[in-house]
Amino acid sequence: MRFLPFLLFAAAAFAEGGSPYPRVDDPSPGVVKGAVEALDAAFKGKDTAAQISAIRSQGGVNANDVVHALAKGLRSKDDGVRIETIHALGWHPGKEALKQLHRFYRREGKLIADDEDVFAALFKAVGRHGDPSSLTVLGDHPFKGLTPKVAEARILGIANIREKKSVESLMKGMRLTTEESGGRRARSVETRSRGMRYFRPALCVLTGADMGEMDEDWQRWWRENKNKFRMSEKRPPVPADVKAYWEGYWGVSY
Description:
Radius of gyration: 19 Å
Largest sheet: none
Strand content: under 5%
Number of helices: 13
Helix content: 55-70%
Order of helices and strands: HHHHHHHHHHHHH
Low-confidence stretches: 1-17, 180-191
Shape: elongated
Mean pLDDT: 88
Structural class: mainly alpha
Protein backbone atom coordinates (compact mmCIF):
# COMPACT_ATOMS: atom_id res chain seq x y z
CA MET A 1 0.00 0.00 0.00
CA ARG A 2 2.94 2.34 0.52
CA PHE A 3 3.30 2.77 -3.26
CA LEU A 4 -0.36 3.46 -3.99
CA PRO A 5 0.09 7.26 -4.17
CA PHE A 6 2.57 6.86 -7.02
CA LEU A 7 0.30 4.43 -8.85
CA LEU A 8 -2.52 6.94 -8.74
CA PHE A 9 -0.09 9.67 -9.76
CA ALA A 10 1.09 7.62 -12.76
CA ALA A 11 -2.46 6.76 -13.77
CA ALA A 12 -3.37 10.42 -13.91
CA ALA A 13 -0.30 11.12 -16.05
CA PHE A 14 -1.25 8.35 -18.46
CA ALA A 15 -4.63 9.96 -18.94
CA GLU A 16 -2.77 13.08 -20.07
CA GLY A 17 -0.47 11.01 -22.29
CA GLY A 18 2.82 12.22 -20.83
CA SER A 19 5.34 12.14 -18.04
CA PRO A 20 4.08 12.37 -14.46
CA TYR A 21 6.95 14.78 -13.75
CA PRO A 22 6.26 18.33 -15.06
CA ARG A 23 8.73 18.75 -17.93
CA VAL A 24 10.79 21.91 -18.05
CA ASP A 25 13.00 21.90 -21.14
CA ASP A 26 15.70 24.56 -21.57
CA PRO A 27 15.24 25.81 -18.00
CA SER A 28 16.79 29.10 -16.97
CA PRO A 29 19.75 29.04 -14.55
CA GLY A 30 17.41 30.28 -11.85
CA VAL A 31 14.98 27.41 -12.37
CA VAL A 32 17.83 24.89 -12.29
CA LYS A 33 19.24 26.43 -9.11
CA GLY A 34 15.84 26.40 -7.46
CA ALA A 35 15.25 22.74 -8.36
CA VAL A 36 18.65 21.68 -7.05
CA GLU A 37 18.18 23.60 -3.81
CA ALA A 38 14.73 22.08 -3.28
CA LEU A 39 16.03 18.55 -3.80
CA ASP A 40 19.11 19.10 -1.65
CA ALA A 41 17.03 20.53 1.18
CA ALA A 42 14.63 17.59 1.05
CA PHE A 43 17.38 14.96 1.06
CA LYS A 44 19.15 16.62 3.99
CA GLY A 45 16.06 16.04 6.10
CA LYS A 46 14.49 12.78 7.23
CA ASP A 47 10.95 13.39 6.00
CA THR A 48 10.49 10.82 3.23
CA ALA A 49 7.14 12.31 2.20
CA ALA A 50 8.85 15.67 1.65
CA GLN A 51 11.59 13.96 -0.36
CA ILE A 52 9.06 12.22 -2.61
CA SER A 53 7.20 15.51 -3.05
CA ALA A 54 10.42 17.27 -4.09
CA ILE A 55 11.24 14.52 -6.58
CA ARG A 56 7.78 14.77 -8.13
CA SER A 57 7.82 18.56 -8.40
CA GLN A 58 11.43 18.99 -9.57
CA GLY A 59 12.22 15.71 -11.33
CA GLY A 60 11.19 16.95 -14.76
CA VAL A 61 13.61 19.88 -14.91
CA ASN A 62 15.87 18.99 -17.81
CA ALA A 63 19.37 19.77 -16.58
CA ASN A 64 22.33 17.63 -15.57
CA ASP A 65 22.67 19.45 -12.25
CA VAL A 66 19.11 18.43 -11.41
CA VAL A 67 19.84 14.84 -12.40
CA HIS A 68 22.82 14.77 -10.04
CA ALA A 69 20.68 16.18 -7.24
CA LEU A 70 17.96 13.62 -7.98
CA ALA A 71 20.44 10.76 -7.94
CA LYS A 72 21.02 11.30 -4.23
CA GLY A 73 17.65 9.64 -3.73
CA LEU A 74 19.10 6.38 -5.04
CA ARG A 75 21.14 6.11 -1.84
CA SER A 76 18.10 6.40 0.41
CA LYS A 77 17.32 3.49 2.71
CA ASP A 78 13.62 4.03 2.09
CA ASP A 79 12.22 2.00 -0.81
CA GLY A 80 9.56 4.59 -1.56
CA VAL A 81 12.17 7.31 -2.07
CA ARG A 82 14.43 5.06 -4.13
CA ILE A 83 11.60 3.92 -6.38
CA GLU A 84 10.33 7.48 -6.87
CA THR A 85 13.86 8.56 -7.80
CA ILE A 86 14.19 5.65 -10.23
CA HIS A 87 10.87 6.54 -11.87
CA ALA A 88 11.91 10.18 -12.23
CA LEU A 89 15.23 9.25 -13.81
CA GLY A 90 13.42 6.85 -16.12
CA TRP A 91 11.17 9.62 -17.41
CA HIS A 92 14.00 12.17 -17.60
CA PRO A 93 15.00 12.77 -21.24
CA GLY A 94 18.71 13.36 -20.65
CA LYS A 95 21.54 10.88 -21.21
CA GLU A 96 22.87 11.71 -17.76
CA ALA A 97 19.75 10.25 -16.17
CA LEU A 98 20.31 6.92 -17.91
CA LYS A 99 23.96 7.04 -16.88
CA GLN A 100 22.92 7.37 -13.24
CA LEU A 101 20.57 4.37 -13.57
CA HIS A 102 23.32 2.24 -15.12
CA ARG A 103 25.69 3.30 -12.37
CA PHE A 104 23.13 2.37 -9.72
CA TYR A 105 22.75 -1.09 -11.24
CA ARG A 106 26.50 -1.66 -11.33
CA ARG A 107 26.90 -0.41 -7.75
CA GLU A 108 23.93 -2.05 -6.06
CA GLY A 109 22.52 -4.62 -8.47
CA LYS A 110 23.52 -7.55 -6.27
CA LEU A 111 22.00 -5.94 -3.20
CA ILE A 112 18.67 -4.93 -4.68
CA ALA A 113 18.13 -8.22 -6.53
CA ASP A 114 16.27 -9.42 -3.44
CA ASP A 115 14.04 -6.33 -3.47
CA GLU A 116 11.54 -7.08 -6.23
CA ASP A 117 9.91 -3.64 -6.35
CA VAL A 118 13.18 -1.72 -6.60
CA PHE A 119 14.73 -4.22 -9.05
CA ALA A 120 11.72 -4.18 -11.38
CA ALA A 121 11.43 -0.38 -11.20
CA LEU A 122 15.09 -0.06 -12.17
CA PHE A 123 14.79 -2.25 -15.26
CA LYS A 124 11.63 -0.45 -16.32
CA ALA A 125 13.29 2.95 -15.93
CA VAL A 126 16.35 1.80 -17.86
CA GLY A 127 14.19 0.35 -20.62
CA ARG A 128 12.07 3.49 -20.84
CA HIS A 129 15.06 5.35 -22.29
CA GLY A 130 15.17 2.95 -25.24
CA ASP A 131 18.94 3.23 -25.53
CA PRO A 132 20.98 0.38 -27.12
CA SER A 133 23.64 0.73 -24.42
CA SER A 134 21.09 -0.63 -21.93
CA LEU A 135 20.97 -4.09 -23.52
CA THR A 136 24.00 -5.09 -21.44
CA VAL A 137 22.13 -4.10 -18.26
CA LEU A 138 18.74 -5.59 -19.15
CA GLY A 139 20.32 -8.84 -20.30
CA ASP A 140 22.87 -9.15 -17.51
CA HIS A 141 22.49 -12.32 -15.38
CA PRO A 142 18.87 -12.81 -16.50
CA PHE A 143 18.04 -15.21 -13.67
CA LYS A 144 19.21 -12.86 -10.92
CA GLY A 145 16.28 -11.84 -8.73
CA LEU A 146 13.94 -13.40 -11.26
CA THR A 147 10.24 -12.97 -10.48
CA PRO A 148 7.37 -12.42 -12.93
CA LYS A 149 7.50 -8.68 -12.22
CA VAL A 150 11.26 -8.48 -12.82
CA ALA A 151 11.05 -10.68 -15.93
CA GLU A 152 8.34 -8.41 -17.34
CA ALA A 153 10.49 -5.32 -16.74
CA ARG A 154 13.55 -6.88 -18.37
CA ILE A 155 11.68 -8.22 -21.41
CA LEU A 156 9.58 -5.13 -22.10
CA GLY A 157 12.61 -2.94 -21.47
CA ILE A 158 14.50 -4.79 -24.19
CA ALA A 159 11.45 -4.49 -26.46
CA ASN A 160 11.58 -0.71 -26.12
CA ILE A 161 15.03 -0.69 -27.74
CA ARG A 162 14.54 -0.85 -31.50
CA GLU A 163 17.61 -2.83 -32.47
CA LYS A 164 17.99 -6.20 -34.16
CA LYS A 165 20.10 -7.19 -31.16
CA SER A 166 17.00 -6.77 -29.02
CA VAL A 167 15.22 -9.49 -30.97
CA GLU A 168 18.28 -11.73 -30.70
CA SER A 169 18.43 -11.09 -26.96
CA LEU A 170 14.77 -12.02 -26.50
CA MET A 171 15.13 -15.16 -28.59
CA LYS A 172 18.07 -16.21 -26.45
CA GLY A 173 16.13 -15.42 -23.27
CA MET A 174 13.20 -17.44 -24.52
CA ARG A 175 15.44 -20.47 -25.03
CA LEU A 176 16.98 -20.09 -21.59
CA THR A 177 13.65 -19.83 -19.81
CA THR A 178 12.25 -22.94 -21.49
CA GLU A 179 15.20 -25.16 -20.64
CA GLU A 180 15.72 -27.19 -17.49
CA SER A 181 19.05 -27.45 -15.71
CA GLY A 182 19.79 -30.79 -17.39
CA GLY A 183 19.44 -29.25 -20.82
CA ARG A 184 16.12 -30.91 -21.55
CA ARG A 185 13.30 -28.85 -23.00
CA ALA A 186 10.60 -27.97 -20.47
CA ARG A 187 7.41 -29.16 -22.14
CA SER A 188 4.96 -27.92 -19.53
CA VAL A 189 2.48 -25.45 -21.05
CA GLU A 190 2.36 -23.71 -17.67
CA THR A 191 6.12 -23.26 -17.60
CA ARG A 192 6.18 -21.89 -21.12
CA SER A 193 3.17 -19.59 -20.79
CA ARG A 194 4.61 -17.74 -17.78
CA GLY A 195 7.40 -16.37 -19.98
CA MET A 196 5.54 -16.15 -23.26
CA ARG A 197 2.95 -13.73 -21.91
CA TYR A 198 5.83 -11.21 -21.90
CA PHE A 199 7.87 -12.49 -24.83
CA ARG A 200 4.96 -12.47 -27.27
CA PRO A 201 4.02 -8.75 -26.93
CA ALA A 202 7.70 -7.79 -26.78
CA LEU A 203 8.46 -9.58 -30.03
CA CYS A 204 5.28 -8.31 -31.67
CA VAL A 205 6.33 -4.72 -30.94
CA LEU A 206 9.85 -5.27 -32.26
CA THR A 207 9.05 -7.32 -35.36
CA GLY A 208 5.43 -6.69 -36.34
CA ALA A 209 4.91 -10.46 -36.46
CA ASP A 210 2.63 -12.42 -34.15
CA MET A 211 3.48 -16.08 -33.74
CA GLY A 212 1.37 -16.54 -30.62
CA GLU A 213 2.51 -17.94 -27.28
CA MET A 214 4.38 -21.05 -28.39
CA ASP A 215 8.12 -20.51 -28.20
CA GLU A 216 8.80 -23.10 -30.93
CA ASP A 217 6.77 -21.03 -33.42
CA TRP A 218 8.76 -17.89 -32.67
CA GLN A 219 12.10 -19.71 -32.88
CA ARG A 220 11.12 -21.22 -36.23
CA TRP A 221 10.02 -17.82 -37.51
CA TRP A 222 13.32 -16.26 -36.45
CA ARG A 223 15.41 -18.96 -38.10
CA GLU A 224 13.55 -18.29 -41.34
CA ASN A 225 13.67 -14.49 -41.13
CA LYS A 226 16.71 -13.35 -39.14
CA ASN A 227 19.03 -12.92 -42.13
CA LYS A 228 16.60 -10.66 -43.99
CA PHE A 229 15.06 -8.93 -40.97
CA ARG A 230 15.44 -5.16 -40.79
CA MET A 231 14.27 -3.22 -37.76
CA SER A 232 11.74 -0.49 -38.54
CA GLU A 233 12.32 2.92 -37.00
CA LYS A 234 8.74 3.15 -35.78
CA ARG A 235 6.70 0.57 -33.92
CA PRO A 236 4.64 -1.53 -36.31
CA PRO A 237 0.88 -2.17 -36.11
CA VAL A 238 0.18 -4.85 -33.49
CA PRO A 239 -2.90 -6.76 -32.27
CA ALA A 240 -5.27 -4.78 -30.07
CA ASP A 241 -4.45 -6.79 -26.95
CA VAL A 242 -0.73 -6.19 -27.41
CA LYS A 243 -1.27 -2.46 -27.90
CA ALA A 244 -3.43 -2.21 -24.79
CA TYR A 245 -0.91 -4.17 -22.72
CA TRP A 246 1.99 -2.02 -23.95
CA GLU A 247 0.20 1.23 -23.20
CA GLY A 248 -0.89 0.01 -19.79
CA TYR A 249 2.64 -0.96 -18.87
CA TRP A 250 4.52 2.09 -20.15
CA GLY A 251 1.85 4.70 -19.46
CA VAL A 252 2.14 6.32 -22.91
CA SER A 253 0.30 5.94 -26.19
CA TYR A 254 1.61 3.24 -28.50
